[in-house]
Design goal:
alpha+beta, Aminopeptidase, eight-stranded mixed sheet, about 35% helix, binds coenzyme A
């Protein structure tokens, strides 16, 4: 078996890879449109092929922002059943790619709710999870996917206790992000803070949110009536459409339910520009955030499993 990054001439054969399991994958329409937008690149797709027939036996596809220097997330891991031991083949494919990239991006797997009780989804996750773990993606996180849908949930009233203002200065958001990250229950932020200076971490978050398709002009800082900073509210969008983006409350203002006012502002903002569906993710362990989504009429429709490398070991 030969392992290598893909090249443009592989396109037809890459489009022929079909995942018929109950799990997210890079289907042909997605592959073509993301190659066009720059979110996928041939050198961010690795394949394992039969040395004699040239048939593709395994394929791994990574996603990034179009302007990123390296891949940011593994989107699809496929091994043809005829390849034999799927776990070994997939683990070897990931290990080779990680060595080529000089880093091991996290694997984001989208599965239906209740996937643990669904034998098809459970089996689809199981061999991928084992392979990812062997390739160094040993940290496991379950994120709940929520959606607000027009007509299904109300458009909230404006907050009576907070004032929202935009700010053209990115440093104002860096400073607010840094405060909001203190004592966060969000796994990714906590993981980043284990190895990074808080200001550098906040700056990286601001830069990542700027890279999203949502507009920078939508971002808001929230203040109480006395003018004290309460938090941030960032309506945004990704390749799939409008998203909540990010919100957070500074530590000294927590426990007053301000999360509801911030989420309401984001929902109102999107609804006001005609958006009919808003998607959001939060860690299953971020209970105050998950409860806020449920109070606001967002419905949990799926799960995103994130398998990542331990930053302390990388
Ligand atoms: C999630 C978050 C926005 C909740 O804000 P909030 O306005 O304090 O939420 P609530 O007032 O509804 O809090 C409900 C309860 O959870 C507690 N709580 C809130 N945030 C907490 C935290 N980070 N750690 C521990 N407990 C927390 C509150 O003290 C309150 O407890 P109580 O009922 O005993 O008074 C806030 O924790 C935060 O900014 N976290 C960091 C950023 C983040 O996780 N954003 C979401 C990313 S998707």
């Amino acid at each position: 078996m030969r392992f290598r990054p893909a090249v443009e001439g592989d396109l037809d054969r890459l489009l022929g890879c079909v995942v018929d399991e109950s799990i997210s994958w890079s289907h042909p329409d997605r592959l073509l449109s993301y190659l066009e937008s720059g979110n996928y690149r041939f050198d961010h797709i690795w394949l394992a092929e039969d040395e004699e027939s040239g048939e593709i036996l395994a394929r791994a596809v990574w996603w990034s922002f179009p302007d990123s220097t390296g891949p940011l997330a593994l989107d699809c891991l496929h091994v043809h059943p005829s390849a034999g031991d799927r776990v070994s083949v997939a683990a070897e494919l990931l290990r080779r790619a990680h060595a080529g990239y000089g880093q091991a991006p996290a694997y984001h797997v989208f599965v239906p709710n209740g996937w643990r009780d669904d034998p098809r989804a459970g089996a689809a996750v199981a061999w991928r999870w084992a392979a990812a773990g062997r390739a160094g993606l040993t940290e496991e996180l379950e994120r709940l996917r929520y959606a607000w849908t027009e007509g299904d949930a109300p458009v909230p009233e404006p907050s009576e206790r907070l004032v929202f203002r935009g700010d053209d200065d990115d440093e104002a958001f860096v400073s607010a992000f840094r405060r909001v990250a203190e004592g966060t229950l969000d796994f990714h932020t906590r993981q980043a803070l284990a190895t990074m200076d808080p200001v550098a971490q906040a700056r990286e978050d601001v830069r990542d949110y700027r890279s999203m398709p949502g507009e920078r002009a939508w971002w808001r800082l929230a203040y109480d009536k006395g003018g004290a900073l309460v938090g941030v509210a960032l309506p945004s969008a990704n390749n799939g459409g409008p998203v909540v983006g990010y919100l957070g409350v500074v530590p000294e203002q927590r426990g007053h339910g301000y999360v509801d006012d911030l989420l309401a502002e984001i929902t109102r903002f999107h609804a006001g520009r005609g958006v009919r569906r808003i998607v959001a993710d939060t860690d299953a362990g971020n209970v105050p955030m998950a409860r806020a989504f449920e109070r606001a009429g967002y419905r949990n429709f799926a799960v995103r499993l994130v398998l990542s490398a331990n930053p302390v070991n990388t």
